[in-house]
Amino acid sequence: MPLVEDLVAKHARYVLTPWAEQGGLRPPVIVRAFGSYLEDAAGKRYLDLSSGLVAVNLGHGDARVVAAIAAQAQRLCFSPPGWFNDARVELAEALVGLAPWQEGGRVFFTAGGAEANEDAIKIARTVTGRSKILSAYRSFHGSTFGSGTLSGENRRWPIEPGIGDVVHFFAPFPYRSPFHTTDDAEETRRALAHLEDIVAYEDAERIAAILIEPVVGSNGVVVYPAGYLAGVRALCDRHGILLIADEVMTGFGRTGAAFATERYGVVPDIIVFAKGVTSAYVPCGGAIVRESLAGYFDEHVLALGHTYSGHPLAMAAGVAALSAYRQDGLFARAAALEAPLRARLEGLRERHVSVGDVRGVGAFFALEFVSDRATRTPLVPWQGKSLGAMTTLFAGLRARGVYAMGRYNVLHVAPPLTVSDDELDEALHALDGAIDDLEAA
Ligand code: PLP
Asked: Is residue 173 within a helix (H) or strand (E), and if so which, with residue range?
């Protein structure tokens, strides 16, 4: 193994790192991982409190998935996407089995979430013959031109003007209501009225689909108040608009069910997935399309395709990951983690004035940091230029051997669904200390 310093220097010399100014970057060099831990080139372990990018739902190095990938690699590493493949049909059948439709469905595979959202809206536009897509502010759907345009935050700005016919709307956010309410039922009512207005102003007959994260992911784990998603579904039905659920982050147990839409009792027309489908062991994403839409392509060309669509290694990893989720009851385990996680994080909020809000569902939580609890002033400006004071929090976590994902004044707590009670104790103890550092700074 080369010296750590050499690796760092060469990484900086040869690799462009996402979402960062490149000068002065000095993150750990990760060389292996097991269970809930990442390990760096110096042998230091980091408890992975965000499952990578909320993706490694099985924890790292699950032997069943690793063996399945290895066995597939021995037998077949690539198969032409236009020909059929045994592993592909196995994963597609398993995914359709998780979807809510009596009528069944079919899967189009991609290499990740951004591609999958773009393909989902292409399918919606083709089948409906309409072109507009509505998506929410404060959403993230990927960083490519199409998915970036769909995203409702500053990761979209560098790619503007992006693709055409995408319109954004405000969705509920109880802690920072765009509708000036303090009551969940009122928030739902006003948010639905706002969406109905947008549909009217954009002309319902020109709108192909509404695309939504059923729980907002990287923009702060915003859980919609009761009735909102059902209201969006009803609005779509009234106007012949398709509902696309972006379950890239929420899928495969994260919220305590196969999909968050299932947890909230809402039936979308297309489910977009990635990340947890293979527990992120091999890149994979896709769109599960209900049969009444998929059948359209029996007599029309499906004008989509990627070299890595249904890649055998991803398919094998997906089949093994879904089987491991089932075998270990991990969707139920995520549901069981919800109450203790909420209680523990609320405990942190009680101890620390900088924690303004604790929110989440299943094993998917966020802490939002404020400089003033009464006014809810964000500790660092949302979509501002830097992480400011939050840098101390992340440095404190890293020093204490914890990795966690965050954005501006929000920290994500989304451990592997396999995390043990002792590991959670360890991580939350470290978080407690890192918040002490933040408040002392
Ligand atoms: N959609 C959501 C909800 C996501 O959270 C992400 C990534 O974090 C994406 C789409 C994009 O997925 P990918 O990074 O695989 O392109």
From this structure: none
Q: Residue with the nearest Cα to atom 5 of ligand 1?
A: 249
Q: Is the CB of 141 under 6 A from ligand 1?
A: yes
For the whole model, what pTM was predicted? 0.98
The closest alpha carbon to 310, from 118, 146, 110, belongs to 110
Over residues 101-115, the mean pLDDT reads: 98
> CB–CB of 251/99 below 8 Å?
no
| Ligand 1 near 128 CB (within 6 A) | no
Is residue 190 within 8 A of residue 420, CB to CB? The reply is no
The average pLDDT across 51-63 equals: 98
Query: For residue 32, is pLDDT > 90?
Result: yes
Q: What is the pLDDT of residue 180?
A: 97
Tokens of 292: 């009444």
**Which amino acid, 88?**
R
CA 145 to chain centre: 18
Residues 6+ away with beta carbon under 8 Å from 411: 366, 367, 369, 390, 393, 404, 405, 431
- Mutate which of 248, 279, 412 for ligand 1? The one with the most ligand atoms within 8 Å of its CB, which is 248
pLDDT at 1: 63
Half-sphere exposure of 312 (CA within 13 A, CB side): 17
**Cβ–Cβ under 8 Å, residues 87 and 313:** no
Alpha helices in 276-401 (DSSP H): 291-294, 312-328, 330-351, 390-399
Q: Which two tokens stand for residue 277?
A: 């489908």
**Which neighbouring-strand residues pair with 40?**
30
Is the Cβ–Cβ distance between 136 and 224 less than 8 Å? no
Cis peptide before 161 (omega within 30 of 0): yes
Check if 405 has its Cβ closer than 6 Å to any atom of ligand 1.
no
Of 57, 88, 74, the residue nearest 308 (C-alpha): 88
Query: Which of these, 62, 75, 21, lies nearest to 317 by C-alpha position?
Result: 62
Q: Which residue has the tokens 């290895």?
A: 70
C-beta separation of 225 from 187 below 8 A: yes
Q: Is 114 in the pocket of ligand 1 (CB under 6 A)?
A: yes
Question: Are 260 and 254 contacting, i.e. CB atoms less than 8 angstroms apart?
Answer: yes
pLDDT of residue 2: 73
